[in-house]
Amino acid sequence: MPPHAAPESRAADAPVRAALFLVLVGMCAALHIWKVPPALPQLQAEFRLGLVQSGFLLSAVQLGGLVLGLPIALVAERVGLRRCVLSGLAILATASTLGAWLDSGLLVLLFRAAEGCGVLMVAMPIPALIRRLVPPDRLSRVMGLWGSYMPLGTVAILLAGSWILSLGTWQLLWSLLAALTLCCLLLTLRLVPPDPAPDAGRPRDSLARLARTTLGSANVWLVALIFGLYAGQWMAVIGFLPTIYAAQGIGGATAGLLTAIVAGANAIGNLSAGRLLHHGVAGWRLLVAGLATMILCAWAAFGAGLPAQGQFVAVLMFSMVGGLVPTTLFVLGLTLAPSPQTASTTIGWMQQCSSLGQFVGPPFVAWVVNRAGGDWQWTWTATASFASAGIVLAIMIGLRTRSATPTR
């Protein structure tokens, strides 16, 4: 091998390594979303929160994405995807620090909303960045890793968060996450290539045109709505698991471990979807399989009266097979975007609909439980309504794209 081959090989692999690092950055953002569930008992006691109020605290982080998903995507097209990620990390670090030290229930809620904007600014541009960095023949596999950023981040915070909370208060957890996010910001500056300079000779679409093109695509709407329906039910079930276990007398550390195992199982589905898509399995079939399994497993976990061990297995399968859905949607979002210029705005609209689902899901499930007198057995009816609607939309995607093959 010529002496210069190894440096050239390392240089060629640098963009792929940067893409893999961006998965870690996404995991860091996910830590901020999921830091509330293990801390929820402390927050409920300190601020005297009821069940529905706790549901809104879980979902408040989605307020930014609920309102600003597409607008932030449009701005990212102008300021640059990497700059958008850096700005999001800065917002997360600042909001987490202020939320910890300005000790007020209302301020915690407001800074959770600010963190939602930061999470969106981090998570929304990364799929388009990965598409820019990774060769097309490796895209679906790397997107399989990206699809697992949320469950892997959830596992990390549920395990580490429960341990940290056993040593200190929720303010300590918030502060440590702020420091970790700042480290990610500095590493992003070093490892991720700068945004390319605009091509002066190529006319740029106006922001209004990009928005019209994105929102004028029926395929984009179908993918985005399914994402919202999936995310709402997954957020509700996983977010309330520590509370459900606490009501059953299971201690905080054990509840955190069980919830972490369930959340982590989602990554198995994410990675499996990447491999299946790479081998040519139709995306809409994976969506139907994942959502139908979620209906069955939610009924088994909450409505079938299974013993504790059976309930745990059912929730585990709910998360694991459901993990087929997000990776498939990310790949379909990039594949079905109306044009390469609308890749990030398509992901932005998907994130906005996902935020809507995650904002509505936990309070809706909490409302159903309250209407049932505090009995969690009717949880499955709420989640099944989300999944059933998603199946109908997935079949519509299949009818519209039957001859299409996923990006490999």
UniProtKB/TrEMBL annotation:
Q: Name its cellular compartments.
A: Cell membrane
Claim: Oxidoreductase is one of the keywords in the record: no
Domain called Major facilitator superfamily (MFS) profile: residue spans: 18-402
Which PROSITE patterns does this entry report, sorted A to Z?
MFS
Q: Does the keyword Transmembrane helix apply?
A: yes
Gene3D superfamilies reported for this sequence: MFS general substrate transporter like domains
Membrane-crossing segments per the record: 16-34, 54-76, 83-102, 108-130, 142-166, 172-192, 213-232, 244-265, 286-306, 312-337, 380-399
Topology in the lipid bilayer is annotated as:
Multi-pass membrane protein
User: Which UniProt key words apply to this protein?
Assistant: Cell membrane, Membrane, Transmembrane, Transmembrane helix
**Any Pfam family matching the protein:** MFS_1
Q: What's the main place this protein lives?
A: membrane
Q: What is this protein called?
A: MFS transporter
Q: Which organism is it from?
A: Castellaniella denitrificans
